[in-house]
Specification:
alpha/beta, four-stranded antiparallel β-sheet, 2 domains, single chain, Rossmann fold, globular, 16 strands, about 20% strand, six-stranded mixed β-sheet
Length: about 425
Amino acid sequence: MDNAVLLDVQGVRKTFPRPDGGELLVLDDVNLRIADGEIVGLLGRSGSGKSTLLRLIAGLSRPAGGRVSYLGTVVDGPPPGIAIVFQSFALFPWLTVLENVEIGLEALGLPQPETRRRALEAIDLIGLDGFESAYPRELSGGMRQRVGFARALVVHPNILLMDEPFSALDVLTAETVRTDFLDLWSDGKLPIKGVVLVTHNIEEAVQMCDRILLFSTNPGRIIGEIAVDLPQPRDRLDPSFRALVDRIYIAMTARQEEAQRHLARLDRLPGIGIDTILSEVSTNLLSGLLERLAGAPYNGSADLPVIASALHMEVDDLFPVAETLQMLRFVEIEGGDIKLTEAGTEFADAETDLRKQLFGRNLLLHVPLAGHIRRILDERTHHTAPKGRFLDELEDHMTPDAAEQTLRAVTSWARYGEAFAYDDQKQTFSLENPA
């Protein structure tokens, strides 16, 4: 196999302007190479900058620092030879399947007979022969995504970029489209030399990729690389496959393990402060996972990949729940395992009123923003404070959207734990509900 370098990303940094005039750092010092004949996965949580990196590679955006080179030439616009498939299909609803595929060739200025021939070949290749005259509304989600693949492949790119191309599909359809793509790739029938796959699905990455690059968040950095040496086709039930999935879960939770081992004197996780972006996780999900862990067959401890599979949850679904429970000290995460703490066991066994008390107590103790809001309310004679006061503080450290999300999260948790109240009409926090 020719191991020529198709793509070279060196020291890439990407920022976006903040409303206050500052900058939000999204990607920092990202380095990667894509060689001829390999599928490379970019795996990480939503918000880790994976899709932003894909746009830089595709020439749809420019880096604030570093460079992206394709076949030795710096990318400063969409280069011929790189195509992209999006999660949302991105089809024109007023065009037929054939017309949607043909439009991918318009920029090449090919004669109409050649355009028609290549479009029909691409449609046949991805298994939609017979649907040339159908409109997108007549197709299933899987068929629409196949049209997206055909439109990308029809230009005969060297590199195919795939931005979570299966995430909008149901589980069975995604598996079928994914398997068909891998079969075509393994048989050498695809007119491409390399693939970059953005995903947050660990099993999908292990099933498809030759190498997996793990991304951190805030900002996005590559924190690890894992080679996948398993032969294709890969069996999800094979012990080697499961061991690799476990290894990735451990790698993606390693930073939290380190924090857990170095608890500060005030019993706060390092890095968790008032300026920490919080995920909006419902208390129903938090309670549900604690109950599931407490019951059989887990009895207080579970392997993260195993419980994720049992609950049909992906990284973006499970990790925010697990991390929030760890922040609240209801669970510990170590070595790819999640286990109940004493407080977590007490919560799982308690009745509703006691659960709310336990939750409120741990919220004020271990989530600094919640404790900060409660202290402000306690100190004021009227025990009220406007929402804007806390938004302004948060926006010094994060985007306005992230500040709103963080405040919504802590407000929901505080209401459940009766730590403080919030009146949305008045945009005001108060101590009306708490004793």
